[in-house]
Design goal:
- This protein is α/β, with parallel strands linked by helices and 397 residues long.
- It has one domain (1-40, 155-397).
- The chain is 53% helix and 15% strand.
- It has 13 helices and eight strands.
- The chain has an eight-stranded mixed beta sheet with strand order 3-2-1-4-7-6-8-5.
- Strand 1 (51-57), helix 2 (61-73) and strand 2 form a beta-alpha-beta unit.
Length: 397
């Protein structure tokens, strides 16, 4: 294969993964609405089943009061909510603090075995037909439960994904500026995915499933939210998405903390690919296979590798053509790449100097999360990624 052909393959992967897929979705969704204007997934806003608000916790005493008060304030009949907390290895007084709230069911396990073990154990105590999973350090929107259960009024819906929102502050570092922008773009894509066919997975900050569809998941699972939601999709159920049910949290304290989180997610992505092999079979999963491959698999594998490799391929092409001084396509594209990396370096420099130049934080964040994806691949295959979460520090936490 010539370097020129390789260059164009890499460029296509990058553009399609980060921008192109979103615009293809946008076009297909417009086409669907044009051809099938009356095809609307019906929901019933008066649907009020019992639900279980399920929270797992490890040493979260600083967030317990905030989370419990938020849970009690949600707009839904209190007698229809089972408040269930599962603590795994907490030794900071979290279980004792939780037990002071009479409306909570608290199930503590002394040994820390990881979040998935806690979830498998805790689901056995669920009494409601719908489980709503949420993280301790997030605040849910007041109407979140109502928005979620309305989606479950459709029998084809097996899982509902809520929206993750980053609370933006003027003092945000590169992690805050980049993460906030990333989740706005991600939410736009997820909404289109769901409208076209099905959302591609859910985020652990807020998602819900039909209790009857839960099956014990391998306890070494890194991305519990993806595995649980996508296995439900493999059963033929729809993953709905509702941006009006949302979970707010602050951004990572800095890029170092965000890098720690993203590497783990990237390692979990590779694990997910192996565990959900059937999802890549279009004869079994249909349109969802294309969505999953485009939205997730490429981001976890080829796209980050292509992003860094294309710089070196581009450099060799320009050197072979002797066109550094000529404004040909390959030389211009090389200079654009160099400028983008310089902006990322300036972003790194300004963050370390605690200077807030947010326009430079975006390229820095973009380069960092793609670097994290490559590190996550290596970590997964080296077997060095622990199943136990090493929590990332959050701003104002």
């Amino acid at each position: 294969m010539s370097l020129v052909i390789l260059f164009w393959i890499l460029l296509f992967i990058i553009i399609y993964t980060y921008v192109g897929y979103a615009f293809v979705l946008f076009f297909l969704l417009k086409l669907k609405k044009l051809l099938f204007p009356k095809h609307v997934i019906k929901t019933n806003n008066s649907y009020e089943p019992n639900v279980c608000l399920f929270v797992t916790a490890f040493n979260e005493k600083d967030f317990v009061h905030q989370k419990v008060e938020n849970s009690f304030s949600l707009d839904y009949p209190k007698e229809k909510i089972q408040y269930l907390w599962v603590t795994d290895g907490s030794d900071d007084g979290t279980p004792e603090l939780l037990k002071k709230y009479t409306n909570l069911e608290v199930y503590h396990f002394d040994e820390r075995r990881g979040k998935m073990h806690a979830m498998n154990r805790g689901v056995k105590f669920v009494k409601a037909p719908i489980i709503i999973f949420s993280d301790t350090n997030t605040i849910l929107g007041t109407q979140s439960i109502r928005e979620i259960v309305a989606k479950f009024s459709n029998k084809k819906t097996g899982c509902v994904a809520g929206e993750k929102r980053i609370v933006e502050k003027q003092t945000d570092t590169a992690a805050g500026a980049g993460e906030g922008l990333y989740w706005k773009f991600e939410s736009w894509i997820k909404n289109m995915d769901a409208e076209l066919n099905s959302a591609v997975g859910a985020v652990g900050e807020l998602f819900a499933i039909r209790t009857e569809l839960f099956e014990d998941v391998e306890t070494d699972t890194l991305l519990d939210d993806f595995i649980i939601s996508l296995r439900i999709a493999l059963k033929g159920y729809h993953i709905a998405y509702t941006p009006n049910a949302y979970a707010e949290e602050t951004a990572s304290l800095n890029v170092k903390e965000e890098l720690k989180r993203k590497i783990r997610i990237a390692a979990g992505g590779i694990q997910t690919i192996f565990r959900l092999k059937n999802l890549l079979n279009p004869f079994r999963s249909g349109l969802l296979s294309w969505q999953y491959f485009s939205h997730k698999v490429l981001r976890w594998t080829l796209a980050p590798i292509s992003l860094f490799l294309i710089l070196f391929v581009n450099l060799i092409i320009v050197a072979q053509q002797g066109s550094f001084a000529n404004l040909q396509f390959y030389s211009v594209f090389l200079y654009i790449q160099v400028i983008c990396y310089l902006l990322a370096i300036f972003g790194w420099y300004f963050e370390n100097k605690k200077l807030r130049v947010k326009i430079l934080f975006v390229p820095y964040y973009f380069v960092t999360i793609n670097y994290a994806s490559i590190m996550g691949i290596f970590r997964y295959f080296n077997g060095k990624q622990s199943v136990v979460w090493e929590k990332s520090k959050r701003s104002d936490s």
